[in-house]
Amino acid sequence: MISCPDGAELRGVFHSADHATPLTVIVNPATGVPARWYGPFASYLATKGFGVLRYDYRGVATSRSAASRSTRWYHWGQQDFEGALGWVRRHRPGSKVCIVGHSFGGFLPGLAHSAGDVVRILTVGAQYAHWADYPPGSRAKLILKWHLVMRLLSKACGRFPGRRLGWGEDLPSGVAGDWARGLERFEDHFPQSQREHIRECFAAVDADILAIGFTDDPMASPRAIRRALEYYTSANCSVITLDPVGLGSPSIGHLGFFDERKGRVLWPSAAQWLRGQTDGSIFQTSSPKPPDETVEEDRSNSQ
Q1: Distance of CA 220 to the CA centre of its chain
Q2: How many angstroms separate the CA atoms of 65 and 62, rounded?
Q3: Among the four 66, 146, 157, 272, which has the fewest Cβ within 10 Å?
Q4: How many alpha carbons lie under 13 Å from residue 289 in its C-beta half-sphere?
Q5: What is the pTM of this model?
Q6: pLDDT value at residue 260
Q7: Half-sphere exposure (CA, 13 Å, Cβ side) for 270?
């Protein structure tokens, strides 16, 4: 089990590396995306020498029972991700920790007390859903879907029925409410007395961060990605925006990086970057950020 500081227990899967390595990757899912979606990507990294932990946040998929109606986004960072870091410390002592974070999963590391232990963070479409950052062409549709319908259904049902709608996994009503509010400043989800502390937690992270975006991603525009990175004031941040057509794919969007059919062309470069290598990588052209549960062993070795 992945034990969180508040006693909640989460489920996840650990992929053992094909050969000994000092590197462990924790995969932080997007909101409403189950850990199983990241299985092929995690398995690929394991063949390249990484130990990989993927897990479901409280209230989602295999960890659904670990949540209450009051579960919020910040619980996923302060408790669940912190619990995943603790699992790695116990089971992979001395390992250097890297993060691959998808969507909100790429933003939340700064909420964890131990995030300063992380050495590299690769984010994919990372943002926290401020409505004004959506591209103009899709803004009205996304506001209706994620900021109106989500809010109303969550209040009516007691949780967001994502699976019934085909909109991802079910979510705790508190998490759905955070998403639906779409606030310009993430710390505004907290009482005034806590906001400076939240900013300080993000500022304490001094990892290398590479933020990847795609030109056809309606959720994570360049503006949204920059807004999220601005919290990591002590990190060495770089941003790269990729055109799917130039990668030989008609579309990648918000989910395709982790789809074996669409994103696999990018996985070798991801492994290189996580290892600290960039020569010949698709990500070599990245540019500096502008100022403005039961953990099951994937290879029949249960932990």
Answers
A1: 12
A2: 8
A3: 157
A4: 23
A5: 0.93
A6: 94
A7: 26
Matching residue, tokens 């705790």: 172
CB 15 within 8 A of CB 51: yes
Give residue 299's pLDDT: 43
- 110: which 2 tokens? 């700064």
Place of tokens 């600290």: 276
Cβ pair 8, 83 in contact under 8 A: yes
Confidence band, pLDDT 50/70/90 cuts, at residue 22: confident
Cα torsion 60, 102, 228, 48: sign: positive
H helices of the chain, in order, are 39-47, 73-75, 82-91, 104-107, 136-142, 150-157, 162-165, 173-181, 192-203, 222-229, 260-263, 267-274
Checking 86-94 for CB contacts under 8 A at 24+ apart, the result is 86/2, 86/3, 86/5, 86/114, 87/2, 87/3, 87/12, 87/53, 87/295, 88/24, 88/26, 88/53, 89/114, 91/14, 91/295, 91/303, 92/24, 92/51, 94/22
Residue 228 has pLDDT above 60, yes or no: yes
Residues 276-297 pLDDT 10s? 987 667 886 544 444 344 455 5
User: Whose CA is closest to 239, among 223, 217, 219?
Assistant: 223
The CA R_g of the chain, rounded to the nearest whole Å, is: 18
